[in-house]
Design a protein that fits this description.
Strand content: 5-15%
Distance between the termini: 36 Å
Strand order of the largest sheet: 2-1-3
Number of domains: 2
CATH class of the largest domain: Mainly Alpha
Number of strands: 3
Bound molecules: fe (ii) ion
Helix content: 55-70%
Radius of gyration: 16 Å
Largest sheet: 3 strands, antiparallel
Shape: globular
Number of helices: 4
Length: 172
């Protein structure tokens, strides 16, 4: 058995092999390293543009976390409930990871929860829009970040949100 650790969210995974993607934040396998070699993707100090983008990213992730959680609680369909529960956990992990960069406590907020509607199909469409928005935002943030570690962090998040676009396009 080996101890692995995710460079994006910092969570630990114990297993024979690396997981296909991080069970906590969804980061792709390459971000998993053996615990002995682990170092969180974190910059020594942050530029103003990065601080601004991290704050925007935090708002986006919290909003998505709450929307997904609300849908998972509202839907009657087991698949939809599961999918949105999983998405909510991943986005919450992103929000926590962003707070580590900003060196702040995760704010308590319910923004986004009221956007869950009765129709599962509509909620899935909304998730697709949200993930596309996230990928567009992170794409811009990658280009703007002067810190190599932050560039990589945003890139990892962008890849994960792209996976979510794929998921939402598979339908229910
Ligand atoms: Fe992770
Ligand atoms: Fe996210």
């Amino acid at each position: 058995m080996k101890v692995y650790r995710c460079r994006v969210c910092g969570e630990v995974y114990i297993g024979e092999e690396k997981p296909g993607s991080c069970p906590f934040c969804g980061a792709h396998q390459d971000y998993f390293v053996l615990a002995r070699q682990w170092q969180l993707l974190k910059a020594e100090s942050l530029s103003d543009v990065t601080k601004e983008n991290l704050k925007k990213a935090l708002d986006l992730e919290i909003d998505n976390t709450n929307f997904y959680k609300a849908v998972s609680e509202k839907s009657k369909n087991t698949y939809v409930k599961s999918m949105f529960k999983g998405l909510s956990k991943v986005e919450r992990e992103h929000a926590s990871a962003i707070c580590k960069h900003l060196r702040i406590e995760k704010p308590d907020s319910n923004v986004g929860a009221d956007k869950a509607v009765e129709s599962d199909e509509e909620n899935v469409k909304e998730s697709n829009r949200r993930e596309k928005r996230a990928v567009a935002f992170y794409g811009q943030a990658i280009n703007q970040a002067p810190e190599p570690e932050i560039k990589e962090f945003f890139k990892a998040l962008s890849e994960i949100e792209s996976d979510h676009i794929t998921l939402s396009e598979q339908g229910i």
